[in-house]
Design goal:
Length: 227
Amino acid sequence: MRDRRTRKADTNGGGRALRAASKAPSKASVRARHPVRTRTQILDAATDEFSARGLGGARVDSIARAAGVNKRMLYHYFGNKEELFSELLRRKAGQVSDVRSKAPDRFPDRLAYHQARQCADERWTRLLMFEALAFGADPIANREQREAGWRAAIAGIEDEQSAGTLPRELDAAQLQLSLVALVTFPVAFPQYTKMITGRSPGDPRFLRERQRFLRSLARILELTAAR
C-alpha cells in the first residue's frame, strides 16, 4: 500500500499536468491567430480538390482535412463551397495575371512561354473547365479583373498590328482567342494530344516539339504581316 506522501505526490503531479494542459493553446486557437495562413492552407487544399473533382464532386470535409482545419472554420472563412470555389478562381486569376506580365516581348517567344506555363500548371486549365461546366458564361468570378487582363492583351496585339509585326487584317480579339486555344487545348484535352502527337502534355518532349511549332507559326504570322 502506498503511503500518504506517494499519494500526495501523484495528486500534485496530476494537478500540474492538468494545469499545463489547460494553458496549452488548442490548434483551433493557434489557427485563429493566423487567419492569412489558415486561408492560404484552405485555398491550397481546395486547389487540389476542385481541380481533381470539380465543383459538384469536391467534398468540403476532404478540403478541411487536407488543410488541417475543421469544416466550421472553413465555413467561417468562405461561407460555402461555391464561395470557396469563386475565391479560388479569383486567387488563381491573379496569379495568372502575374505570369502573363512576365511574358517575353517577342511574339514567337511569348507564345512558347505561355505554352510552357500551361503545361506547368495543368490544374488551372482543369479549374477553368470545371468553372465552365458549373456556370457556363455567367457568372464569372472576378470578372472585372479578368476582362481587364484580356483587354490589355488585345490592346497589345493591336499595337503589334500597328507596328507591322502581326497581320492587320486579323481581328485582334479573334486572334487573341485563337492564341489562347493554341496553348490551352493540348492541356485541356490530353487524350487528343496523346492520340494525335503520341505524347502527353506532361512529357517534356511534347513541350519542346510544341514550342518549336508555335515559334514557327508565330514567325509565319510575322512574315505575313511584313509583306
